[in-house]
Amino acid sequence: AEAAELRARLRAVRHTVLVLSGKGGVGKSTFSALLAHGLAADETKQVALLDIDICGPSIPKMMGLEGEQVHQSGSGWSPVYVEENLGVMSVGFLLSSPDDAVIWRGPKKNGLIKQFLRDVDWGEVDYLIVDTPPGTSDEHLSIVQYLSATHIDGAVIVTTPQEVSLQDVRKEINFCRKVKLPIIGVVENMSGFVCPKCKNESQIFPPTTGGAEKMCQNLNVSLLGKVPLDPQIGKSCDRGQSFLAEAPESPATLSYRNIIQRIQEYCEQHHLQEEKII
Question: Where does the AAA+ ATPase domain start and stop, copy by copy (predicted)?
Answer without folding.
Answer: 14-185
